[in-house]
């Protein structure tokens, strides 16, 4: 019985034919064996896949996809994949890495950590696309449409993986937004809908900053908040007790160069991290918060049984906060990728600062969302260097902190039309991707024609 489908490959041969799942060990599971796999069941029933007529493949994992050959063991499946148009979706962001002939890419970390210098970007490759390209070439498969999660990375990768037609779709984000839409409709149907969360008088704190799993960029921002005395009166989560030396060793940039360029900020980070040692764990909606030690990375690995979230969407903590500092998972790479962290802030009617990859605000604008450049600078979105972008975000946090709670309540009132627009637009993301992919296909046909 399969209950968790992470690192699994899903194949649906026809729209109404129940899919098979190939787990990380290469074992095949039919629908009866996966009926208790709640996450996959929700995805297939609630997303656009429910009405998908063409064959499709989903990979819910990271790194090289080892199970691909298993799909071709059945002659029926081989015939479909070889002769029909097949859509390939990812449920997780892509694994980008820097190509180095002396290193095995299979041992590269899932999250790329670079500062987006030109000599780094030109060597980037993708493990998932490596595996699909190799599989397609080996088996003469020419009709794969592969939907990349990270926005506009297909523009770079298309020339590197010519056997694939690269398009755009973040399956998780689209499903999550469609699920929120279903919940919203049910709430309205039963007359339970109230705009409680857009009442300015609920705001008693300036910032919301969630960092459940460890990432150096999250450590950077949280140390800054601590160094500026912005922890106690705000909603902040952070569970990691690491020395200044350990924090510095985890950064993706030269600390010596950074401290020379940003002497005041570097002192704030060191002082802030020293303070963090005394006050972690900082918790938002955690049932049993536990500090993670100096070798800690993710709570589920290093402290089993602790730091279990009561909710992925702690609404009350959003309602009492003015601005969400969204700590996305993908910050130290060239291409934007958003997750439920961004969608939850929008769902809960919060303005946001995006601690994310460059171009994330532009991606959100392309999706139809409105941002907040009328209230504070958003030039950080155009800063290619990841460390320089975070440094600029820290300046904007300081700027927002200059306002009193009463002034922020008034500012929030002025923002309400934007916040309502963003909330309504949240449920249109599938339409955005459909229109984008139609344009990409049209441009490709024109170029090839």
Summarize this structure as a short list of keywords or feature phrases.
Rossmann fold; four-stranded parallel beta sheet; 41% helix; 2 domains; alpha/beta; 449 residues; single chain; seven-stranded mixed beta sheet
Mean pLDDT: 91
- In CATH, the architecture of the largest domain is 3-Layer(aba) Sandwich
Q: Mind describing the biggest β-sheet?
A: 7 strands, mixed
CATH T-level topology of the largest domain: Rossmann fold
* Overall radius of gyration: 22 Å
Beta content comes to 5-15%
So what's the CATH class of the largest domain?
Alpha Beta
- Count up the domains: 2
Counted beta strands: 13
Helix percent reads: 40-55%
3D architecture notes:
The chain has helices at 31-34, 38-46, 75-83, 118-121, 127-138, 153-157, 171-189, 216-227, 244-250, 255-261, 263-279, 299-302, 315-319, 340-347, 360-366, 386-401, 405-425, 429-448; strands at 8-12, 20-22, 28-29, 56-60, 86-90, 96-98, 124-126, 144-148, 165-168, 205-209, 235-236, 321-327, 352-355. The protein is α/β, with parallel strands linked by helices. It folds into 2 domains: 8-168; 196-428, Rossmann fold. The strands form 3 sheets. It has a 7-stranded mixed beta sheet. Strands 11-10-12-13 form a 4-stranded parallel beta sheet, with helices on both faces. Strands 6-7 form a two-stranded antiparallel sheet. Strand 12, helix 14 and strand 13 (352-355) form a beta-alpha-beta unit. The radius of gyration is 22 Å and the shape is globular. The N and C termini lie far apart (49 Å).
Helix-strand layout with pairing:
Elements: E1 8-12, E2 20-22, E3 28-29, H1 31-34, H2 38-46, E4 56-60, H3 75-83, E5 86-90, E6 96-98, H4 118-121, E7 124-126, H5 127-138, E8 144-148, H6 153-157, E9 165-168, H7 171-189, E10 205-209, H8 216-227, E11 235-236, H9 244-250, H10 255-261, H11 263-279, H12 299-302, H13 315-319, E12 321-327, H14 340-347, E13 352-355, H15 360-366, H16 386-401, H17 405-425, H18 429-448
Parallel strand pairs: 4-5, 5-8, 8-9, 10-11, 10-12, 12-13
Antiparallel strand pairs: 1-2, 1-4, 2-3, 6-7
């Amino acid at each position: 019985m399969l209950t968790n489908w992470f690192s699994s490959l899903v194949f649906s041969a026809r729209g109404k034919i129940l899919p098979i799942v190939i787990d990380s060990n290469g074992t095949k599971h039919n629908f009866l064996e996966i009926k208790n796999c709640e996450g996959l069941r929700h995805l297939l029933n609630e997303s656009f896949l429910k009405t998908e007529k063409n064959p499709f493949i989903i990979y819910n994992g990271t790194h090289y996809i080892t199970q691909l050959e298993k799909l071709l063991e059945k002659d029926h499946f081989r015939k479909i994949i070889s002769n029909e148009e097949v859509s390939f979706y990812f449920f997780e962001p892509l694994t980008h890495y820097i190509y180095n002939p002396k290193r095995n890419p299979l041992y590269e970390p899932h999250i790329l950590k670079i500062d987006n210098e030109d000599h780094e970007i030109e060597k980037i490759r993708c493990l998932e696309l490596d595996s699909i390209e190799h599989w397609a070439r080996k088996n003469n498969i020419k009709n794969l449409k592969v939907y990349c999660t990270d926005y506009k990375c297909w523009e770079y990768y298309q020339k590197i993986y010519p056997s694939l037609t690269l398009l755009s779709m973040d399956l998780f984000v689209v499903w999550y937004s469609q699920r929120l839409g279903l919940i919203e409709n049910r709430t309205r149907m039963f007359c339970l809908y109230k705009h409680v969360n857009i009442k300015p008088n609920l705001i008693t704190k300036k910032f919301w900053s969630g960092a459940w799993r460890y990432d150096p960029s999250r450590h950077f921002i949280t140390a800054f908040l601590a160094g500026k005395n912005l922890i106690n009166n705000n909603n902040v989560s952070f569970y990691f007790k690491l020395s200044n030396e350990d924090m510095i060793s985890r950064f993706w940039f030269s600390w010596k160069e950074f401290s020379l360029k940003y002497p005041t900020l570097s002192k704030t980070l060191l002082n802030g991290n020293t303070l963090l040692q005394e006050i972690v764990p900082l918790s938002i909606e955690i049932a049993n918060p536990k500090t993670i030690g100096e070798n800690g990375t993710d709570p589920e690995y290093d402290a089993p049984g602790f730091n279990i979230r009561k909710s992925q969407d702690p609404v009350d903590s959003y309602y009492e906060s003015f601005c969400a500092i969204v700590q996305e998972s993908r910050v130290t790479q060239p291409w934007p990728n958003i997750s439920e962290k961004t969608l939850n802030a929008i769902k809960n009617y919060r303005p946001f600062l995006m601690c994310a990859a460059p171009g994330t605000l532009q991606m959100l604008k392309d999706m139809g969302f409105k941002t907040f450049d009328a209230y504070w600078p958003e030039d950080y979105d155009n800063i290619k260097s990841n460390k320089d972008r975070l440094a600029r975000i820290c300046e904007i946090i300081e700027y927002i902190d200059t306002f009193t709670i009463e002034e922020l309540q008034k500012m929030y009132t002025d923002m309400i039309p934007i916040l309502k627009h963003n909330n309504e637009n949240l449920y249109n993301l599938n339409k955005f991707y459909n229109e984008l992919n139609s344009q990409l296909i049209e441009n490709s046909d024109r170029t090839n024609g």
